[in-house]
Amino acid sequence: MENLALIDSFSEFKDDKLIDRVTLMAILEDVFRNALKKKYGSDDNFDIIINPDKGDMEIWRNRVVVADGEVEDPNQEISLSEARKIEKDFEVGEEVSEEVKLIQLGRRAILALRQNLISKIHEHDNTNLYKQFKDIIGDIYTAEVHHVRPKAVILVDDEGNEIVLPKENQIPSDFFRKGDNVRGIIENVELKGNKPQIIMSRTSEKFLEKLFEQEIPEVADGLITVKKVVRIPGEKAKVAVDSYDDRIDPVGACVGMKGSRIHGIVRELGNENIDVINYTTNTQLYISRALSPAKVSSIKIDENTHRAEVFLKLEEVSKAIGRGGHNIKLAGLLTGYELDVIREGNPAEDEDVELTEFSDEIDEWIIAEFAKIGLDTARSVLNQDVNDLVRRTDLEEETILEVMRILKEEFDS
To answer: Which residues form the Transcription factor NusA first KH domain (predicted)?
Structure first.
């Protein structure tokens, strides 16, 4: 062998765990045949023998002997006088096998050959990597933080594969440092040119579902089925579970004694509040359970519009809506119904309504201003003097009067 760089190429790749011996030999032969085509116009009459373990190879060109002066294709034919320089007893019509030395391809061709070899190996590795991660989309995966960027965290797994965790796929409370281990699901694998880009997610509903499978034995064994998961990442989630075995309490099994089983999942998700409810095909009961922790008085369902009017006592309304409206939003997503809260009866003078219930009419920052001075219900605001409220808050008189009008209309109605 004349070219040490090429031998180095063999030893560089022959032990690569992502490529077997047969595949490597096929790639090497393909690379050499391309070089021969460029040099001689055809590779049909060449035999290539490769030993990648030793970094050794032989190339033999087979040509037919023709009479002197009758050579039409120098690649396929050899003159009798030239053939007899190799062996004296050759005759016209016989086949001559002659070894082709790499140096005959030319220095540039050899350098191009090495580069082509490296390119083919990387292409093979990328194809394998793409297939490997395509097969585990939706599964939990763990990798280490390699670099934290403004729009994404770059992770590296034990095999050195790069995984991207985009900002929008991170839980709002997530905070990562270099070297941290991160769990998420493989959400997608995208081809960027010839290189696969592996995308991880921690905000997907599938991540929470897979955490249930991983952390709760009955779910992993199939005794409990996760029917549906809805999330507002980092804030709140609702998980509907069912069991075909009447002896198993699916909610109790998932939550565990004093929340022992679900605690690890909650911690993994940045203290996301998780409601686990029993799934049922009874729509009214399902909606009622979905609105937990609120106690529903009655429900009126319109199957045509997929809407439901939910009747609740005044003290249950704020529980049904939840902080920031999260509870009722998730209940609607879980059941597939648009839920309208109806307050039961007329509020008596001694009854009150929390200000958060008016978040659809009053801006949250205004409600927060009242909360700063201890006013968190409608009547607590209505009982105040307007001038006193102007003095005690950062609100304009006009704003306070508008709030009082809204609150008064609620009680008048």
So the answer is: 202-279
